[in-house]
């Protein structure tokens, strides 16, 4: 099958996208991809095409690349946007540049738009080998997916089944010109070391090294898909709402989780936590083991990159953002007939007639006492324990005071000294990772 036909087949799943955008570095791979797409558009009905060039400013040679990309795109009749980014210093310049590049492009993708990148089979093989040497699991060894979400659109890699040799042969046959990145020859970068020092040696002994490694990545992607399906079934089993379904933070029932083998527990948790936080490596799963092994009446916490996993009662709760910040109070409630907005803590309103008094909302400080109808004066801490209110929620739970006296607890109808109900609408959980 010709290169053009393979590209057309690889793009069949995104033909109905509103627009295609090519990540155009000006190098060999993206130059061939752009030229192939322009040729394909002359013969087939394709979405509108544009290109984007990200200038990292990391080396003086790169200053000439935007102009080269403009000339190429002008000749092909493709609109080009040049974006300059600032690369943050870090332990890996490669990774920092990649993150800055994708972040800049993600901001510019329209709804449903498809970003097309030119990674090929050799890139896929190097990625698998690189991750294998870092001790990656199945998901990491699946290397680069052919398609994934990116912001409001999609990222598609239509050349993963094409070798770099094929791309170069095609470019030379058509007399295409491209820029050469001097940093690609630097053995300081791990991927370059693999490309120039390791892969050629492997190919001498096993000529199909790149092909077989890319095939292994495909096998790993299939295995990961099966693990994801298993995780979805396991998480669905744990997703039944608990007694406090009005708390808008992600949670899972603990008992079904603990009924699974340790490997299935980790698989399910990885799947569930992935939208919320960067996941720990294998050495840091001791935190999960400690959380499971803690005493039944304790409230252990597992701290992760973007938040905390709490075990409260019979559930696991994911807390991040505002749910880890202290609340600010007291808050005067001058008109109890109107809803009261609480700083960074949602809103409360009263259902029922509130007698004239000086009302305010406070939060727990310790030592509070509530007059409970039919039970007399009771310690609030004990009442909350009896009600099973998750520990993390108690500090945010609005307490209604009238003339300086605690008269009720929001969302707990049995804990109110007055003939009324205090409804609290908690703030939503913070958005997870992109």
UniProtKB/TrEMBL annotation:
Organism of derivation: Stutzerimonas degradans
Sequence positions that bind ATP: 25-30
Membership in a protein family: Belongs to the tRNA(Ile)-lysidine synthase family.
GO terms of biological process kind: tRNA modification
Keyword hit for Magnesium: no
Gene3D superfamilies: 1.20.59.20, HUPs
Enzyme Commission designation: 6.3.4.19
Keywords: ATP-binding, Cytoplasm, Ligase, Nucleotide-binding, tRNA processing
UniProt remark on domains: The N-terminal region contains the highly conserved SGGXDS motif, predicted to be a P-loop motif involved in ATP binding.
Domain Lysidine-tRNA(Ile) synthetase C-terminal: 359-420
Function summary: Ligates lysine onto the cytidine present at position 34 of the AUA codon-specific tRNA(Ile) that contains the anticodon CAU, in an ATP-dependent manner. Cytidine is converted to lysidine, thus changing the amino acid specificity of the tRNA from methionine to isoleucine.
Protein encoded by which gene: tilS
Protein name: tRNA(Ile)-lysidine synthase
InterPro entries tied to this protein: Lysidine-tRNA-synth_C, Rossmann-like_a/b/a_fold, TilS/TtcA_N, tRNA_Ile_lys_synt, tRNA_Ile_lys_synt_N, tRNA_Ile_lys_synt_subst-bd
GO molecular function: ATP binding; tRNA(Ile)-lysidine synthase activity
Primary localization: cytoplasm
SMART domains, per the entry: TilS_C
PANTHER family: TRNA(ILE)-LYSIDINE SYNTHASE-RELATED
GO cellular component, one term: cytoplasm
Protein localization: Cytoplasm
Reaction equations catalysed: cytidine(34) in tRNA(Ile2) + L-lysine + ATP = lysidine(34) in tRNA(Ile2) + AMP + diphosphate + H(+)
Tree of life domain: Bacteria
Secretion signal, residue range per the UniProt entry: none
């Amino acid at each position: 099958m010709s290169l053009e036909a393979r590209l057309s087949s690889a793009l069949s799943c995104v033909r109905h996208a509103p627009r295609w955008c090519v990540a155009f570095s000006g190098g060999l791979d993206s130059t061939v991809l752009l030229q192939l797409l322009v040729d394909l558009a002359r013969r087939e009905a394709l979405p509108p095409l544009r290109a984007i060039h990200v200038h990292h400013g990391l080396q003086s040679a790169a200053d000439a690349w935007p102009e080269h990309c403009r000339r190429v795109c002008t000749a092909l009749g493709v609109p080009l946007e040049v974006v300059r980014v600032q690369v943050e210093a870090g332990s890996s310049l490669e990774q920092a540049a990649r993150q800055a590049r994708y972040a800049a492009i993600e901001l510019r993708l329209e709804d449903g738009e498809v970003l097309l990148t030119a990674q090929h089979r050799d890139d896929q093989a190097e990625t698998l080998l690189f991750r294998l040497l870092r001790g990656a699991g199945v998901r990491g060894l699946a290397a680069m997916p052919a398609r994934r979400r990116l912001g409001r659109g999609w990222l598609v890699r239509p050349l993963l089944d094409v070798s770099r040799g094929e791309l170069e042969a095609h470019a030379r046959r058509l007399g295409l010109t491209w820029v050469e990145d001097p940093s690609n020859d630097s053995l300081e970068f791990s991927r370059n070391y693999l490309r120039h020092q390791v892969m050629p040696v492997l190919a001498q002994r096993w000529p199909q090294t790149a092909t077989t490694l890319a095939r292994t990545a495909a096998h790993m992607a299939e295995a990961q898909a099966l693990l994801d399906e298993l995780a979805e079934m396991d998480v669905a089993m744990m997703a039944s709402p608990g007694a406090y379904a009005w708390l808008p933070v992600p949670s899972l029932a603990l008992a079904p989780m603990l009924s699974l083998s340790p490997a299935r527990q980790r698989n399910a948790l990885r799947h569930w936590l992935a939208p919320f936080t960067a996941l720990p490596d294998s050495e840091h799963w001791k935190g999960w083991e400690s959380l499971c092994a803690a005493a039944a009446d304790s409230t252990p916490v597992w701290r992760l990159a973007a938040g905390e996993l709490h075990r409260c009662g019979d559930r696991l709760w994911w807390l991040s953002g505002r749910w880890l910040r202290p609340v600010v109070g007291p808050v005067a409630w001058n008109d109890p007939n109107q809803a009261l907005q609480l700083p960074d803590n949602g809103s409360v309103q009263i259902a029922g007639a509130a007698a004239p008094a000086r009302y305010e909302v406070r939060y727990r400080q310790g030592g509070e006492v509530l007059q409970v109808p039919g039970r007399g004066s009771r310690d609030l801490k004990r009442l909350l324990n009896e009600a099973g209110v998750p520990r993390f929620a108690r500090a945010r739970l609005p307490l209604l005071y009238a003339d300086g006296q605690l008269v009720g607890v929001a969302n707990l109808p049995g804990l109110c000294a007055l003939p009324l109900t205090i409804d609290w609408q908690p703030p939503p959980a913070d958005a997870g990772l992109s």
